[in-house]
TrEMBL record:
Residues spanning the membrane: 65-87, 99-119
InterPro entries: DUF1003 (IPR010406)
Keyword set, alphabetical order: Membrane, Transmembrane, Transmembrane helix
PANTHER family tied to this protein: INTEGRAL MEMBRANE PROTEIN-RELATED, MEMBRANE PROTEIN
Pfam families, per the entry: DUF1003
Signal peptide feature range: none
Protein name: Cyclic nucleotide-binding protein
Lineage: Bacteria, Pseudomonadati, Pseudomonadota, Gammaproteobacteria, Alteromonadales
Provenance organism: Pseudoalteromonas luteoviolacea S4054
Highest taxon above the source species: Bacteria
Length: 166
């Protein structure tokens, strides 16, 4: 009975036409009826479901977007070019100018690293959507609870006015 009253209140407050609320709204109404908390730590629940490959992709993306990676990467490139330029004066340089092997390594690195970073970004987008959805539920529940409290305060106010007139 109490659930029906809350559901009717929610329908009226949300301006819902028809008999049914949406799944998110229904979930919020149920949480109000059962007086349960709907706040959840998205980070824990999201990261617990990641596979080993997804965790590795996140680590690669994290390292690939760091200053540490840039410094190591530039150092290796400078070392490669200097080493091959010095060896260029001799005839046994393993990658003489125009550094074709270095170009191949850089292209391969970019070809592998880009999709891994994209996978990590897609997962972050999914996590953000989940967080926004949870935030919407919490905000909706808060608004409905505040509306209910306002309604109760108005009822108490009316009762007090009636009592004062007696």
């Amino acid at each position: 009975m109490k659930s029906d009253k809350i559901e009717n209140f929610a329908k009226a407050s949300l301006g819902t036409e028809g008999d049914e609320l949406g799944p998110v709204e229904k979930s919020v109404v149920d949480s109000i009826s059962s007086q349960e908390v709907i706040v959840a730590n998205i980070n824990e629940s999201f990261h617990d479901e990641l596979t080993f490959g997804q965790r590795m992709a996140d680590k690669v993306a994290e390292f690939g977007g760091s200053w540490r990676f840039i410094i190591i990467f530039v150092s290796i490139m400078v070392f490669w070019v200097v080493l091959n330029t010095v060896w260029l004066t001799q005839e046994d340089a393993f990658d003489p100018y125009p550094f074709i092997l270095l170009n191949l390594v850089l292209s391969t690195l970019a070809a592998v690293q880009a999709p891994i970073i994209m996978m990590s970004q897609n997962r972050q987008t999914s996590k953000d959507r989940l967080a926004f959805s949870k935030s919407y539920e919490v905000n909706l529940k808060s608004e409905l609870e505040i509306m209910r409290l306002n309604q109760k305060v108005d009822e108490i106010h009316k009762l007090l006015i009636k009592e004062s007139k007696k």
